[in-house]
Design brief:
Blueprint lengths: L2 H22 L1 E7 L6 E2 L10 E6 L5 E7 L2 E7 L2 H6 L11 E3 L2 E7 L2 E17 L5 E11 L6 E7 L6 H12 L11 E3 L4 H6 L3
Parallel strand pairs: 10-11
Antiparallel strand pairs: 1-7, 2-3, 3-4, 4-5, 6-8, 7-8, 8-9, 9-10
């Protein structure tokens, strides 16, 4: 083998090793937004039951959960004020909804760049025996600082048996380059009822 060919092969192998190392550094850690693990801000409103709580996150970030009229917003920031100013704090789904209390943080090494949460979206066309809407599950991928915090992808948890894997892939491939306010959040995988109802305009 010539010296040039040997050098090319060495560079190729080195690049492959770097790609593999980069891929291996991606992972997940978890935190809770359960009320017992968070700090309640003020008292629940007597008028509409609205609440706000601040929950510990990763790498100095906090998670802000605000509920009003049976609808939630979830945002992330260095403190409550900054989290409340992010685009994610102003994004409401139309139907009644709630987020589950486990937050999955996608990280590159120790640095988080996205969160994934399971949401329950009320379907007004599917009522239980008491006439209340049943909910449908959806995963929401949200990008993190540096840069704005906003939704980047939705994955229907019922229509996609591999919803968790799809959400992680979307976080890893989309979140860091996503431009809040310019790019539109992507629907990943098969479209099910939760995504249909949540993204209806």
């Amino acid at each position: 083998m010539t010296r040039i060919a040997t050098l090319c092969l060495a560079l190729l192998l080195m690049g492959t090793g770097l790609d593999r190392a980069a891929a291996q550094s991606l992972g997940s850690t978890y935190t809770s937004t359960a009320p017992k693990d968070c700090r309640q801000i003020g008292k629940p409103s007597e008028l509409d039951g609205s609440t706000t709580r601040v929950c510990p996150g990763k790498d100095g970030l906090i998670v802000l959960i605000a509920e009003d009229d049976l609808r939630e917003v979830v945002s992330v920031g260095r403190n409550r004020k900054l989290a409340a100013e992010e685009p994610a704090a102003k994004l409401w789904f139309g139907p009644f909804n709630s987020s589950e209390t486990t937050v999955e943080w996608r990280t590159n090494g120790a640095k988080p760049f996205a969160i994934i949460q399971r949401w329950h979206i009320a379907d007004g066309t599917d009522l239980d025996k008491q006439g209340r809407p049943n909910t449908k599950a959806m995963l929401v991928v949200t990008r993190l600082p540096p840069g704005p915090v906003c939704h980047v992808a939705y994955v229907d948890a019922v229509a996609n048996p591999n919803a968790n894997e799809l959400a992680r892939k979307a976080a890893d491939e989309i979140a860091r380059g996503f431009r809040c306010g310019e790019d539109e959040a992507k629907i990943i995988g098969a479209i099910g009822r939760a995504v249909e109802v949540a993204t209806r305009r």
